[in-house]
Fold Glypican 2.
Amino acid sequence: MPLGPAIVRGVQFSEDTLCRTRAAAAMFALPSLLLLLLSLCPGPGPGPGSEAKVTRSCTETRQVLGARGYSLSLLPPAVISGEHLRICPQEYTCCSSEIEQRLTWETEATFRGLVEESGSFLVHTLAARHRKFDEVFREMLSSSEHSLALLFHRSYGHLYSQHAPVFTGLFSRLRDYYERSGEGLEDALVDFWAQLLEKMFPLLHPHYIFSPDYLFCLTRLASSPDDSLKPFGEAPRRLRLQITRALVAARAFIQGLETGRDVVSETLKMPLSEGCRQAVMRLTGCPLCRGVPSLPPCRGFCLNVAHGCLSSQGLDPDWGAYLDGLLFLAEKLQGPFSFELAAQSVGVKISEGLVYLQENSAVVSAQVFRECGNPQRAPSRARRAPAPREEVSRLWTPAAAGAAGTEEERPTTAAGTSLNRLVWELRDRLGRVRGFWAGLALTVCANPRMAADISQEAAPCWTGAGRGRYLSPVVASSLEQLENPELDRESLRSDVQTRRRRLQLRLATTRMRAAALGRDMELEDWDEEEEDASGSGEGQHYADDWMAGAAAVAPPARLPRPPRRDTSGGKGGGVLVRHNQGRSRTGGTSVGFHTQPILILFLSALALLGPR
């Protein structure tokens, strides 16, 4: 009996001991199993900030910044808390507040330097084209003036020398207008023809004395609104058409090149906004603070920063319209608005006018005497002596005219560059820079200091927060920059200076397009009363189909300005009263039309000026 429970308890004890033994064995084997399983499981892949658990050294950052001249006493030997940082991630860092600030300035300077370097060739192109075209235009004017003076002096000697200031004064006024310091071209031409008439009319009538009042009546009659006298025929109108539209176009073209050069230069040197300054610091400066200076910024990261900053401060979309206006006007300058032909035509048109005055002297003089009265006959002793015999015998020979015309046929610069070649070079160079502003971000991010190479896009790079891949979309269009993940809306707004530069470019484009239509917007009178009186609101306009040397198409033009003299009265002013008092227009003294031989030779030879 006593053995029963004992046996049972013994059995129970044996089974309990066995369970405890098995549990202990299982617990002993569990760590080995867990270690085996951990060894077979893959670890976490690289992601943003994963190097925070690994990189705890500032050695590489200290080496890089020390080589740049930073004091090592400002650089912590090991990472510190980043709570003091304003731009970079506020985790562990190798930068103090002072280092972060200095890096912000340095990264901005680097970014701006790359932008300026990328556009230096564009500034150089516009500056070189401006210099060469300006040189050609000035030399063409000087060549035209020199040719006229040389040919007139060789042919007419002292007679031309006496009246040379009239011609040099015209070229001086043309040059002043081109240099933007003179009056309007129409005023200059009206004054020239008035002075020329004052000089030539007395030569047609050497037996009479013409007082200043009489000459004023003469010039007022010649420049009257009804244009009834026309002492020089159609020559003044044709010269005005050709020289005005050529000079207007050349001046607007030079101003356009100058404006483009200055605007582009200022834009390339633009300071960054605060938002862009911080974005550039996050792009290229924060890897140094994070202890990974060798980790290149992600290309997409760089493109978003560059597109956002450059689109808000660049010149698109006005840049393309500016280039179109520049090229369009350049084509006009070598075609219908040829500056070269206009400069050469000055002497030709003056010759035509003088010949017309000679051939129609009887009709012109009769009308002048009828309106201004008969001039006072000169005493026999006071009459002008005939010209010296050697001047009378100095004739204009066709051979000399042909030789001179060939010598001055195509003005060039000192380097021998013609206007047509300059236009061709301009078209070629501007074609290369049309997409400059749209591709500037790509150019900047192609620099290894700004982003990883495009061939290493699959490799880990700096995302702005750590090592990894940049997953945000790249916003390249200037119209979509509000979706740019790297800049806020305030940073994407154009500042006042940027808007001013864009406005300058638009104004230059508008001036060039107006000049291509023969209009000078700076001197054009926009008074509504004058527009209503002339019946046109288009201002001064010249037809495109009028070619140099062909018949001119009469444009709607402003009324001629009378000569600048102080007087009052009606047609002819007080001069009419003084010279016509007590004198009948039909029963007055008979006036003969006497012309000196030297004047006939002078006027006839003037018709031979220019290319035959």
Residues 1-21, 23-54, 385-416, 525-612 have pLDDT under 50 and may be disordered. Residues 97-156 form the longest helix (60 residues).
